[in-house]
Every structure is written in structure tokens, then in C-alpha cells.
Amino acid sequence: MEIALQLTNLKKQYGLREVVHGISLTVPAGEIFALIGPNGAGKSTTLKMLATLLKPTSGEVNIFDLSVVDHPEKVREIISYLPEEAGAYKNMTGLAYLTFMANLYTANPELAKQFIERGIKLADLGPRIKDKASTYSKGMTRKLLLARTVMCAPKLVILDEPTSGLDIINAMSIRTTIKELAKAGLTVILSSHNMLEIEYLSDRVGLISDGNLHDVGSPKHLKEKYKAENLEQVFMRATGNEPIKEAA
Amino acid sequence: MRSFFILLQKELRELFTWQIVVPIVLVAAIFLGLGSVISSEQEKAKGSQRILVVDNDGSAASATVKDLLGKANFTVITASDQPENTLVEQAKKENTSVALVIPKGFGEGVASNTIPELTSYSVIRSFSISGNQSGLVLESAMQAINTYFSAQLISSATSIRADRVLQPVATIEKVAVGDTIATGKTSQVLGYVNAQTLYIPMILFLVISFAAQMIATAVASEKENKTIETLLTMPVSRKQIVVTKMLAAGLVALIMSAVYMVGLRGYVGGFGTMGESEGARVLIEQLGLNFTLSSYTLLGTSLFMGILVSLALALILGSFAEDVKGVQGLITPLMVLVLIPYVLSFVLDFSSLSGPARALIYAIPFTHSFIAAPNLLLQQTTPVLWGILYQFVVFIIFVYIAAKIFTTDRIVTMKISFSKKKVV
Lengths: 248, 424
What we know:
Chain A is α/β, with parallel strands linked by helices and 248 residues long. Chain A has helices at residues 43-50, 72-78, 94-105, 109-123, 138-151, 168-183, 195-201, 219-225, 231-238, and strands spanning 3-14, 17-28, 32-36, 58-63, 66-67, 79-82, 156-160, 187-192, 204-209, 212-217. In chain A, helix 3 (94-105) crosses helix 4 (109-123), helix 3 (94-105) packs parallel to helix 5 and helix 4 (109-123) packs antiparallel against helix 5. In chain B, strand 1, helix 3 and strand 2 (74-79) form a beta-alpha-beta unit. Classes of the chains: A alpha/beta (248), B alpha/beta (424).
């Protein structure tokens, strides 16, 4: 089994305040792994460390055996990151944006063309792909950005709240895309508040709260372990906010 | 290298928007237009001025006064005797701003041992030089009238040459620049040099201000539009991101300089041949106060280094901005650093300042760009070269800091908000 992501005692401090307290985790290649937790739990900070945006205070992050601290530029060649609040360049059309990003990923014009074609297809914006990004709705922008994130066939995709703030139709469309990409072998690390979404998408989830990783497992396994009906209950019980009820 | 050009192209595309291009062209066009308006006003002022003259004497002396006014380029309009209020009203109606009253007995007064009086009126409609040109010319015409009658009196009363009494000592004025000495006046040199170089600090100030604003806004808008995090996780070197941002802003600044050069040269040129008389031109030639190819090159280098320093500093300051609105407040320290040498270079000779004051002003890297033109005209190349070297060192330090910010967490985490304080 190839290891896509290995976190070892990962810590992050902002000044004197530690926001991630020694997370350790292994994600095999081809898995959809989700981090769930409330606002301020440390999900985004952890994902930003994976994406080489933030440097860990201590501990290790290895992506396909490459350390994000020692080889950030090499790591960036095999990952793709979609921030929670991302935007596209307003003066560019959707197509120009995809073209710009594809050309940064590869110097091969043929390959860039393939990436762009894939991006257009994934964004599914029809003729609006030739309009300026400033004219797009939030859902259209998010679809464009997701297309940009995955079009260049990265080995690991990091998605921070991929469907945050989207309507049901756009959110569903994005979830379907993620699921299909994972079937094709892509490793996905995502975070979300939406427990239903996580249950639908993820192979395994990590429960994170106050910078601590409380438990890791498949949704099914965790529900059984915490005798819960859904992941919300799992989270509450795993983090000690609700007692585990014994079956009657 | 390919990604470098792709990033550069993207940065240029972000900067060359209508919002950037239109103000640059507009400002240059406004200055050019102002230049042509000023020029035509100057030409008008140089032309014949109209003066209302009330001659209550009708003597030979009063005729001489009118004749002397004619020689001073006045067209004399004769008016009847009237109270001064109506005289001023008539002057306004006649579209002239000066009037002169020659009283009865003026001629006799000149001939006898009394001091006759001429009363002049200047209607002030504005406080501009061109609007009050007639009044200024009348002042010198009155001096000429006095000189004429002085000469007449001296000639009739004594055997001494009138011109000797009026100017008993002749002065030969010489100016020295470096080792070269030439006959001429300091005011001639200053007038000519100012006419040639006045627009340089103006351009520098405008370009530095605009370029700094541009690059700081470019970084802030990446943050505001939430594009920076994506860009920073792309497989391109962070240093490339910094360099392409600066290079794009530098290229735009160069184009801006050229456009402003045309506009401001036209504006300053609008002040006409102020100080550019033939005599002044010969004097300047003799003193060697002209730009050579090498001095133009050094001047260009110093100006460009000033722009680069401002870009690097603005890039650092822009990194603190949370959004575009915060940029103005953040680049204020930079604007103050540009404003100090800009304003002081018009009134002070920095080399004659006291030690600490001089050290302080020379520590501002932009000072060297503002003083490069006068130093080069005075053939003082060494301080210009030191200035360029100092600017280069400061530039490297700022670029290093900017690169450090972009290659660490700081570009994502540091922010100063001028609006509502947020807990991050």
C-alpha cells in the first residue's frame, strides 16, 4: 500500500498560542480522507501545512515520501490545494484562468492543452467559460476553482470546505466530481462542517477539535464504536461533549 | 523560465487595466493641456498691453510720458478727466487693468524744483502672475520714466554725464561652476537650469507614488480576492512570484515615466522661454551645464533605482494589507519618505546642511534620485555614483525582506487592518 500522506506529531504555533497539538495520521493513496470539526478546530491550519502555505512548528508532514518542510517546491508539483475562501482573477475569463494555471503546471503545450480541456469539462460552465470570472456566481466560481484544482492530475488534492456556501445543486455537482476523481485513483484530503457530505464522500474521517485529533476511522466504524446514528453524534461523543449511550 | 514569463504576463495583464491606464494618460494630457494654456497666456502677456491715460497737462513732458509708455509696449488709450472710481470702471470696460493720471502742472513741475506726481492704478482681478502682467510692466515703465527725467535734469543742471550719475559703478558679473568661469548672472543660470530640470522631480514624485500604490494594491488585491493562497501553492518558485510582481510594476512605471515626461515637459515648456534667452544659452554652453549622454544614463539609472526601491518597499508594505482599502494607510510612510526630499530639494542645498540633518536626508534613498540632475549638471558625478550604489544596497535589502515574507508563513498570516479589528 502506497502512503500518500504521513503526519507525525504535527504541531503549529501562532506566537505563543499552539493551535495544532501533535497530530499523527497516515492516509493511503487513493483514499478520500476528511477532517471534521468545528470552526477554530485546526482543520484549515492543518490543511495549509499540507499545502506548504504554513510551516509546521514541529513534527513532520510527508506527501508521497516528500517532506513539505525540506522540499516544498517538489511537493507543490504533486499536490493541488483549494482554499476555503478562494477566488479567481477577476480580469481573467474562466478559460484564461484555466490556461494560466495549466501553463504553470507544465511546460509541455500538448499536456497543458489536455489539462485545459479537462478543466473546461470539469467546470461545466458551457459558453460562460469565456466570460470574465468577475461575472460568475459563487457556485460557478467554486466549480471553476475545483476544476483548476484537479485538472492537472495532481497525486494529492487538498480541499478546504469544497462546498461551503453553495446551493444544493452546485454542492451535489462538486461532490459527484470529487467521488469520480477518487475512483480514478486520486487521493483527496478535505475538510468540512457538513457531516452528511463527509459521510457520503469519505472513506475515512478524522475528528479534530481544539487542535487535537480525537479519533480516525471509516464513518461506519466510528458510528459503531460510538454507538451513534450519525457522524454528528460520533463527533460529540468522541470529543467528550456527549456521553456514549449503551444499547437498551 | 517559462513559468517566469507566464507569471510576468499575468502581472502585466493585472496592471494594464483601464483603471490604471486612463488616469496616467489623463494626468499627462492635463499637464500637456495646461502647458499649452499657460504658453498662450504668456504669449498674450508678452504682446501689447493697453493703458488708460488721463492727460490733464497736455505738455511736452506729458507727451514724453506717453511716448515712454509706448516704448514699454503699452497701447495708450486716452481718457477724460474723471473721479478715480469711474476711471477704474472705464479701465475694466476697456478691458485693461492699468491706468495713469498725469496731473495739471506736471510739465512745470518737472522743469521747476518740485517733485511732480503721476498716479497709477492697477486693477487686481486675480493673484496670478499672468493676470497682473500689465501692473508689473507698468511698475518697470514708471522706473524708466523716472530714469529718463533724471537724465534730463542731470544734463540740464550739470556737465557730468547723466549715465555716470545714474550708474556710477559698472559691475561685471561672473559665475563659476567647477573650474569654469564665465560672464553672466546667477539668476540667468538658475532660470535656465530650472527650466531644463524642473519637471524631473515632478515626474519622479508622480511615478514613485503611482508605482508604489500599484504594486501594494496588486498584493493587497491578491489577498482580498483570495487568489494569493492558490498562487503560493502552485509549482513555481516564490522568488519568481516576487520578482515578476516587481518587474511588471517596474515596466509599467517606466512607461508611466515616458508618458509623464511628455506631459510635464509640455507643462514646464508652457512657462515659455523663462530663463532661456540667447545670453543664458551661451552662458550655459560656456559653463558646460548641459546633460551629456553619460550624465543622461546616470540620471536615468538613479531615477530607476529610486523607483525600484519604492517598489520593493511598497511590496513589503502591501504584504501587510488585508484588502485594497488598507493599502493607502500602509504606504503613507513611503509617501512621506518621498515627499521629504521632493519638497526640500526645491529650497535646500543638502550638501550645506549640518552633519546629522545631512545624514538623515541622505539616508532616505529617494533623496539621491532628486539630487541627481543638479549634481550631474554641476559635473559632480561621484556623489551620484555613491547615491546609486546606496540605492542598490537598500533595494537588495528590501527585496531580500520581501522574498523572506513570500517564502515564509508571513505572507499568509501577517496583516494590519485599518478598518474593524478582527481576531484571526
